[in-house]
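Quick one, tokens below:
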């Protein structure tokens, strides 16, 4: 992000701080079980690798990304591909989660209620579709695109 955008980035990070605190608490609680924290600059986020839950995946809460793998630079399928609705090529998990970081920074404390009102973790959720679109094309992370 350009230096001129630094004040906006800081404002977004403050706006989503309640969500980030939830992610930070979850990450810190997982440290005794093998989670490993590290900083991401481009997102901007703090990530916790090796989260001890389920078979795989990631969750973004504000500026905190919790994931089960060793890193975010892994290929994964889009939600539509996973549901058998498309033949999208694999995307990078890091790009998908970056979109959620930007969504959270813009929506702040409204992010989680809106995310769940839109269907939660599901292929029909506009937040997930936008994150997949961003991961596929590098554009379109906003869940309500212009026509």
């Amino acid at each position: 992000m350009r230096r001129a955008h630094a004040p906006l980035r800081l404002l977004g990070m403050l706006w989503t701080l309640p969500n980030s605190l939830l992610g930070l608490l979850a990450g810190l609680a997982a440290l005794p079980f093998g989670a490993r924290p590290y900083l991401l600059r481009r997102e901007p986020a703090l990530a916790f690798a090796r989260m001890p839950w389920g078979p795989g995946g990631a969750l973004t809460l504000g500026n905190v990304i919790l994931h089960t793998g060793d890193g975010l630079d892994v290929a994964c399928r889009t939600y539509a591909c996973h549901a058998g609705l498309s033949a999208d090529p694999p995307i990078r998990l890091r790009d998908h989660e970056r979109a959620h970081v930007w969504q959270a920074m813009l929506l702040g404390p409204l992010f989680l209620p809106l995310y769940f009102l839109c269907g939660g973790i599901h292929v029909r959720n506009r937040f997930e579709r936008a994150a997949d679109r961003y991961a596929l094309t590098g554009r379109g992370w906003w869940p309500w695109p212009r026509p």
